[in-house]
Amino acid sequence: MLHHIVKRRLKAFSRDEGGMISVEALILAPILCWAFVAVYTYFDAYRQSALNLKASYTISDLVSRETQTVTAAYTASMVDLFRKMTDSTNNAALRISVIRFDDDTDKYLIDWSSNHGFDNPLSNSDMEGMRARLPIMPDEERLILVESRSTYVPPFYAGIDIMDIDNFVFTRPRFAGQIASDI
Of 18, 60, 122, 167, which has fewest CB within 10 angstroms of its CB? Predict the structure, then answer.
């Protein structure tokens, strides 16, 4: 008889669904929290990448409209602008260069380059390695090249490590055949 009572109570207990929502919530709450943190972190990384790219295009456009001589103070102000636009204080670097193509030698050459935070200024010897990234240009055409870099530090660890965001943007001068510089 005791055996039947225990068997009946165990059967009733196995069919009782009271408290199941609490158990399910306890199991799923950490997974949902991690998902929200991961989505926020990935969104923030894409947001920072877009900010860096927009800032690089803005700086490239500003330099392309310049009709006066570009000075070291001017390019330093572009670095400040980049940092403010991207809200980046983590190793923000900017290199602004004017390059031209020489059809006789079939080479890209540097007219001038201003380096703020990169390891080395851009030189003519660096241009051959960049050839695949540069557009096809007519003879003696000039191009403004803006290279930017900043370090992204994710707010949470959710599959994205600390990384450098690099951009490579080029624009033609708007109002003059070339941009003069005293750099």
Answer: 18
* Element housing 73 (H / E): helix 72-86
Chain centre distance of CA 19: 47
CA 79, 83, 89, 93 torsion-angle sign: negative
pLDDT in tens, 124-171: 999 989 999 999 999 999 999 999 999 999 999 888 899 999 999 999
In our burial notation (b when 16+ CB lie closer than 10 A, e otherwise), range 145-168 reads bbbbbbebebeeebebeeeebebe
Q: Which helix (H) or strand (E) holds 13?
A: helix 2-15
Helix 20-64 with 72-86: angle, nearest 10 deg: 160
